[in-house]
Amino acid sequence: MTGKLFRLIILNISLLVFIPGLLLNGYSQGQIPVKVMTAGSLLVPFRAIEEAYEETHPEIDVLIEGHGSIQVIRHVTEVPLFSGEAIADVVAVADYSLIPKMMYQTLLPGENRAYANWCLQFATNSIGLAYGSQSKYAGEINIDNWYEVLSREEVKVGIADPRFDSCGYRALMALKLAELFYEKEDILTTIIGDFSYPIKVEENDNGYTILVPEILEPERLVMRNSSVTLVFPLQSGDLDYAFEYKSVAEQHGLNFLELPPEINLSSDSYKTLCPQIKVKIAFKRFTSVNPDFDILPIIYGLTIPANASHPEEAVRLIEFILSEAGQGILQQTRQVTIHPPLVDNPENLPADLIPLVIREE
């Protein structure tokens, strides 16, 4: 067996391991399935969208699958290499920049066109610390001492894996910003602890590059593929604190410590501390992933893949998401919206969506 063939087989197996829900999801006979691949942090609002939409569109069955945002796009662009089948009609990720980075530059198998050529920026968030009432030092932690609390040996801290989930690489960025904000040099390294292969930080003229190795084996830190999979350990008390999006903490009844605006990535206020922080995955793990992620405000992105099985139905669903009713559902489920949303390439947008958006400046 050649090395290339072996790697393809392993990649295929890993994709199947990560997407059992997609393989098992079915839909009622006679209904049109609209498959939505979404960031895990959107699962609660999108399931509410699904319920409301299907009430008025009984001919449609919305099928939702959630993962870390990097993994979402990996499924969409790499599964067809093996199955030949489209995985999603709608893609929604927690970092809009992943869509042009990973879909505009990746061609459909055997075709001279990209997986996508437009992206809607439709929602925002902030990153902070989620915790339960039983978390150690829950009555003590505050905006001034949180990094000291998280550094204590007996405190269990979790983050999403930065190789798969945007919340993971944003957590590393937030920790580096915290060092600058509080003028403490070792916040990042102390909180994440030791790894078999260390995460390193390099300083350059414009800022910092955080280097993530191919193998991540933390000795102290709890790491999961998706940020939402940290919710249950927080609720059960097996985990004390996790870097999480504000909406996710609120959706699941967790306490949430709002970090200063210079750190929480809700806006570009981080620029007062540092103009540029990059997380670089120190290897090219997947064919569709450019392993460099730049610091940006947290903005969610939405698109329809070029190989969607039901593109017209996908447009109708996005119209509902952007409608007054859909926006109300998002807001009721604690998701902050951008209304009207921004679009980068309006000339490529489906015609029915053009009246609902404004062009990105």
Q: How is the topology of this model organized?
A:
Elements lengths: L2 H16 L1 H5 L7 E8 L3 H14 L3 E8 L1 H10 L1 H4 L6 E4 L4 H7 L15 E5 L2 E5 L14 H6 L5 E4 L5 H17 L4 H6 L7 E4 L3 E6 L9 E3 L6 H6 L4 E5 H6 L3 E3 L18 E6 L10 E3 L4 E5 L7 H12 L1 H9 L3 E8 L14 E2 L2
Parallel strand pairs: 1-2, 1-3, 6-9, 6-10, 8-12, 15-16
Antiparallel strand pairs: 3-14, 4-14, 4-15, 5-10, 5-11, 7-8, 12-13
Helix pairs in contact: 3-13, 4-6, 12-13
Task: Describe the protein in words.
The protein is of the alpha/beta class and 361 residues long. It has two domains: 3-124 and 299-359, D-Maltodextrin-Binding Protein, domain 2; 127-281, Periplasmic binding protein-like II (D-Maltodextrin-Binding Protein, domain 2, 3-Layer(aba) Sandwich), CATH 3.40.190. The protein is built from 13 helices and 16 strands. Strand 1 (32-39), helix 3 (43-56) and strand 2 (60-67) form a beta-alpha-beta unit. The protein is globular. The model is unreliable at 1-27 (pLDDT under 50).
Provide a short characterization of the protein structure.
The protein is of the alpha/beta class. It has helices at 3-18, 20-24, 43-56, 69-78, 80-83, 98-104, 146-151, 166-182, 187-192, 231-236, 246-251, 311-322, 324-332, and strands spanning 32-39, 60-67, 90-93, 120-124, 127-131, 157-160, 200-203, 207-212, 222-224, 241-245, 255-257, 276-281, 292-294, 299-303, 336-343, 358-359.
